[in-house]
Specification:
The chain is mainly α. The longest helix is centred in the middle third of the chain and has 24 residues. Helix 2 runs antiparallel to helix 3. It contains three helices and no strands. The chain has a domain of 51 residues.
Length: 77
């Protein structure tokens, strides 16, 4: 395999930065991000499949929002 193209080097650089960033999160920060991702993914699947959103999904999103605010000091009141 030959030399990597400029765009491939840029992707590798971004991947390395993301990997480093994830490793620098505290355990609670990582859990908050992962839970939020899973929750949003789940809510979107429900919206696509049943064209509706459940109250439990809204509650879970609210919890995730609070955790992100708490873990990252986002200043959201």
């Amino acid at each position: 395999m030959g030399r990597k193209a400029k765009w491939e080097l840029e992707i590798d650089k971004q991947d390395a930065l993301r990997t480093k960033a994830i490793k620098n999160l505290t355990e609670d920060q990582l859990k908050a991000v992962q839970k939020t991702y899973r929750t949003l993914e789940n809510v979107l699947v429900n919206i696509r499949e049943v064209e509706d959103i459940y109250l439990s999904d809204i509650k879970e999103m609210d919890t995730c929002l609070w955790k992100l605010n708490n873990e990252f000091n986002l200043g959201v009141k």
